């Protein structure tokens, strides 16, 4: 029996407004907007000689505590027991020389002798060894030599698991759950993705670390490849990288030559002392977990499990639904959110968390209310919804102009016009071509600017075609 063990070190971008040690904008959240290189920079995050860090970003510290609590970790609170002091969180300088790191070290609350922000957690049956906070280096293009400092100094969370996974599928499922949970606390920037180092060993043998995997898909493929490789070859303790194109892991370095980071506490940064009160406060305000949300959708809103599952995978969507469901019966609102709205978003290649997309629940509810009360047709509502992306609007004023036509005489006129114009379709229908009927309905709706009452149109058309 081959028995694989897999452990992960996962990095995610914390969702904050500013960088960790300066007040530069955290541009990762604007990633989709194609920011020019070196737009959000200052002497601190470009490592100018003599520049000193500012106090660490409190938002980043709060977010990492939220993450730790969601993962059921013990947060290292500052406390004295007898003569001993616990929970001294120090920023350490992790040294290495690389063009993306002009100060020559990365500040991190980790390292050989450090106390992590939180530890000993468990999430979905996988033990969490620790969570800590660190800064991101800049990005360096080895081909051109150019360096972009927009990223430099952004807060990162690192989550280290125990080697509790035994295959790639388990890792994939778990990571999806983790990302969903983190998206519920709006703590990690989904658009920025994750980066992970993956450790794999087989049958109690040496372990191999695969560095810098940047998607769930490549994590999965690298693990599958590595387990197979380790079953066949003699395994050495080493660091490898995943070559996407070749579909292989390749040696980067053996453990003997691994760099020595020479961790030392950073004298320019204060010790962090987390108080019990502060952590309790954050705990009491933690949002619902995805599981709690799912249960609520089923119990409170009486959705079927399948329906609820579509919604809960997308926090912005479920939040919109819950707001709309305060005014519109959930069963009525559901297809408009999960089918229609998603259709329009997909068509525009947009998602609800895009900062440029602004769909107000109020506007959405107004639209559905107008359909429910028979003020506008469903088709008209869909047409209006098409215009809700990127920005919704109130349809109150439009309702008169776009009102449903229910006057039979008026509809009869339209039907007559359409039949005269489409003699061929009428003939086809009479010759048994059922599709021609739908075509004619479509034409009638088009000419009425999607306002004719569908039922009445059908009745009149059926009568006329007899
Ligand atoms: P390092 O000092 O090399 O970073 P750590 O002890 O911090 O090593 O562990 C790093 C990662 O390696 C963790 O995610 C852990 O789960 C994983 N790991 C530890 N032992 C094993 C093993 N025998 N097989 C697979 N992964 C392992
Ligand atoms: Mg490590
Ligand atoms: Zn800066």
Short structural description:
With 466 residues, the protein is an alpha+beta fold. The protein contains 15 helices and 16 strands.
Enumerate the strands of the largest sheet in spatial order, edge to edge or round the barrel.
2-7-8-11-1-12-13-14-15
Structural class: alpha+beta
Portion of residues within helices: 25-40%
The chain-level mean pLDDT equals: 93
Structural account:
With 466 residues, the protein is of the alpha+beta class. Helices cover 37% and strands 18% of the residues. It folds into 3 domains: 4-283, no CATH class; 288-388, no CATH class; 408-465, Arc Repressor Mutant, subunit A (Orthogonal Bundle), CATH 1.10.10.410. The protein is built from 15 helices and 16 strands. β3 and β4 form a beta hairpin. The longest helix has 18 residues, at 330-347. The structure holds adenosine-5'-diphosphate, magnesium ion (MG) and zinc ion. Adenosine-5'-diphosphate binds at residues 5-9, 160-163, 199-201, 207.
List the helices and strands and how they pair.
Layout: E1 4-13, H1 58-70, E2 74-75, E3 79-81, E4 84-86, E5 92-95, E6 105-108, E7 118-123, E8 126-135, E9 139-140, E10 147-148, E11 155-161, H2 168-184, E12 194-202, E13 208-213, H3 216-232, E14 238-243, E15 248-254, E16 264-265, H4 276-284, H5 290-299, H6 305-312, H7 315-324, H8 330-347, H9 361-372, H10 378-386, H11 398-401, H12 408-421, H13 423-430, H14 435-447, H15 454-465
Parallel strand pairs: 13-14
Antiparallel strand pairs: 1-11, 1-12, 2-7, 3-4, 5-6, 5-16, 7-8, 8-11, 9-10, 12-13, 14-15
This protein binds adenosine-5'-diphosphate, magnesium ion (MG) and zinc ion (ZN).
The site of zinc ion has 8 residues, from loops.
């Amino acid at each position: 029996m081959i028995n694989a063990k897999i452990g992960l070190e996962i990095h995610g971008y914390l969702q904050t407004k500013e960088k960790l040690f300066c007040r530069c904008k955290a541009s990762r959240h604007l990633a989709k907007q194609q920011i020019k290189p070196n737009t959000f920079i200052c002497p601190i995050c470009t490592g100018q000689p003599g520049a000193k860090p500012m106090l660490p970003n409190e938002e980043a510290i709060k977010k990492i505590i939220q993450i730790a609590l969601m993962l059921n970790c013990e947060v290292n609170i500052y406390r004295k027991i007898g003569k001993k002091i616990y929970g001294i969180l120090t920023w350490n300088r992790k040294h290495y020389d690389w063009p993306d790191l002009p100060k020559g070290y990365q500040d991190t609350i980790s390292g050989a002798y450090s106390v992590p922000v939180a530890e000993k957690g468990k999430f979905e049956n996988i033990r969490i060894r620790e969570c800590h906070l660190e800064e991101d280096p800049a990005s360096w293009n080895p081909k051109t030599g150019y360096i972009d400092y927009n990223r430099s100094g952004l807060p990162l969370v690192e989550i280290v698991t125990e080697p509790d996974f035994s295959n790639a599928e388990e890792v994939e499922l778990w990571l999806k759950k983790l990302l969903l949970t983190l998206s519920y606390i709006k703590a990690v920037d989904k658009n920025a993705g994750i980066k992970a180092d993956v450790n794999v060993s087989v049958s109690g043998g040496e372990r191999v670390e695969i560095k810098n995997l940047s998607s769930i898909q490549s994590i999965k493929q690298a693990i599958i490849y590595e387990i197979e490789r380790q079953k066949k070859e003699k395994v050495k303790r080493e660091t490898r990288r995943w070559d996407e194109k070749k579909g292989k892991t390749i040696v980067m370095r053996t453990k003997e030559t691994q760099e020595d980071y020479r961790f030392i506490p950073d004298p320019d940064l204060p010790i962090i002392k987390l108080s019990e009160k502060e952590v309790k406060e954050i705990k009491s305000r933690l949002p619902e977990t995805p599981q709690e949300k799912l249960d609520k959708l089923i119990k409170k809103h009486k959705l079927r499990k399948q329906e609820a599952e579509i919604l809960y995978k997308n926090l912005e969507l479920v939040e919109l639904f819950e707001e709309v469901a305060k005014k519109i019966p959930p069963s009525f609102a559901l297809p408009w959110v999960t089918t229609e709205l998603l259709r329009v978003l997909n068509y525009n290649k947009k998602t609800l968390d895009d900062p440029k997309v602004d769909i107000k629940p109020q506007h959405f509810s107004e639209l559905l209310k107008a359909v429910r009360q028979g003020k506008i047709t469903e088709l008209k509502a869909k047409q209006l919804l098409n215009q809700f992306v990127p920005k919704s609007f109130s349809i109150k004023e439009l309702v008169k102009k776009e009102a449903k036509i229910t006057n039979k005489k008026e509809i009869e006129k339209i039907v007559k016009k359409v039949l005269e114009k489409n003699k061929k379709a009428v003939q086809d229908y009479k010759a048994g071509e059922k599709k021609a009927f739908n075509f004619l309905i479509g034409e009638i709706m088009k000419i009425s600017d999607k306002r004719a009452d569908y039922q009445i149109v059908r009745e009149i058309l059926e009568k006329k075609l007899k």
